[in-house]
Specification:
The chain has 385 residues and is an alpha+beta fold. The protein is built from 12 helices and 8 strands. Helix 5 packs antiparallel against helix 6, helix 8 packs antiparallel against helix 11 and helix 9 runs antiparallel to helix 10. The chain starts with a helix and ends in a 9-residue tail after the last helix. GO terms for molecular function: acyl-CoA dehydrogenase activity; flavin adenine dinucleotide binding.
Length: 385
């Protein structure tokens, strides 16, 4: 082994992983979680901790000034983060996947166009936002072609972390006689044409600040359009997005289920064990293990480094399995805890509400089953989303 390789190995072994950076933050995050949930307040102070810990830039390649974390390492960070505060983990997963996707493209597709964005994340620690389901395959909002660019008006829902964001990675639909298309661009959140509406009053994940963002006649220059694609149809970029993003997002729900299991076991151990309790604990751990195995499969699909219709199918199968079994595990955790788990002070009912969010990300149960069925039968999937 050369001296250069030895030095590189030593440095890699001594630099904390993202998960190791999160670990000391967990008691603080856990201590704030109940008040954040009860007040429907965004996790602003927690984001400040993440920034101080160097986690904003964790997914940026080291060559561009970031932490160089892999998708698997970022998933581990988010899973662990959910043990402290579900809302912080879910909101931060949206920034994390918006960094991981261009990082992957820079590394594996030599996409030089993403380099300035990644350097800004590393150097300025800017927060990237995703408008989630409202910018899915069909697109949303309206883009009118004008001289030199487009005028965009839209209402983007489920914009997690909107209050803290610097750039919203979004798109808008351009209507055309030959069919609709979608332009993609970065929207500065401080632009005067952008407003955040205080709409986030929900069953669970109450601290994510996933408010609606209203855009009124914002000008996007032609040079600011990163991509134009056909509306309502899968594009290779969305195959990349789906393959990389959802193992990160669902790492959060896995972490929520694991934390619910910890709370339930702590409560149950304080009581005499009965046969029914043994069975509940066993069923809970079986469901949780199924979720863990499914999530591990999602990460292995990412490691193929070949996004396609097939990897979308495999990741989305994993997404459904993680959701089903994580929800089941938390259901059983609440039952195992008994009446004690019904009290808000124990935190289990909050986790029970938070895990319900796993139902609602794409591909939801119906489209996912149709997509998998079409793949199995050799049918087209381009418009199944």
């Amino acid at each position: 082994m050369s001296q250069a390789v030895q030095v590189s190995t030593i440095i890699a072994a001594t630099v904390p992983t993202p998960a190791e950076r999160v670990q000391p933050l967990l008691p603080v995050l856990a201590g704030r979680a109940a008040a954040i949930d009860e007040g429907d307040t965004f996790v602003t102070e927690n984001y400040a901790l993440l920034k101080e810990a160097g986690l904003i830039e964790a997914g940026v390649p080291a060559e561009l000034g970031g932490g160089g974390a892999t998708v698997a390492e970022l998933a581990e960070m988010l899973r662990l983060l959910a043990h402290g505060c579900s809302s912080t983990a879910l909101a931060f997963s949206m920034h994390t996947h918006q960094v991981a996707i261009p990082a992957w493209r820079w590394q594996h597709q030599k996409a030089a166009a993403v380099e300035p964005l990644l350097k800004r994340v590393a150097g300025e620690r800017i927060i990237l936002l995703s408008s989630g389901g409202s910018d899915w395959i069909g697109g949303s909002g309206e883009a009118r072609k004008v001289e030199g660019g487009y005028r965009v008006s839209a209402r983007k829902v489920f914009t997690s972390g909107a209050a803290a964001g610097d750039l919203l990675m979004t798109g808008a639909v351009v209507r055309g006689e030959a069919g609709d298309s979608v332009i993609h661009f970065a929207l500065p959140m401080k632009a005067p044409e952008v407003r955040v509406l205080d709409t986030w009053r929900t069953l669970g994940m109450r601290g994510t600040g996933s408010n609606d963002v209203v855009v009124e006649d914002f000008f996007v220059p032609d040079a600011g359009v990163a991509l134009t694609r056909k509306a309502g149809e899968w594009h290779p970029l969305f195959q990349t997005i789906s393959t990389i993003a959802f193992p990160l997002i669902y790492a959060v729900y896995l972490g929520v289920a694991e934390r619910a299991r910890e709370v339930a076991i702590e409560i149950a151990k304080a009581k005499p064990a009965t046969e029914d309790m043994l069975a509940l604990a066993g069923r809970m751990d079986t469901a949780l293990r199924a979720a863990q195995l499914a999530h591990g499969w999602m990460l292995r699909v990412v490691e193929r480094n070949a996004p396609s219709a097939d990897t979308v199918n495999e990741v989305m199968i994993g997404r459904t399995l993680v959701a089903q079994h994580a929800i089941e595990a938390v259901d059983l955790a609440l039952e195992l805890a008994g009446g004690a788990g019904f009290y808000r002070a124990r935190g289990l009912e909050r986790l029970f509400r938070d895990i319900q969010g796993a139902r609602f990300h794409p591909l939801q149960a119906g489209p996912q089953a149709r997509y998998a069925g079409a793949m199995a039968l050799g049918q087209p999937v381009a418009r199944i989303f």
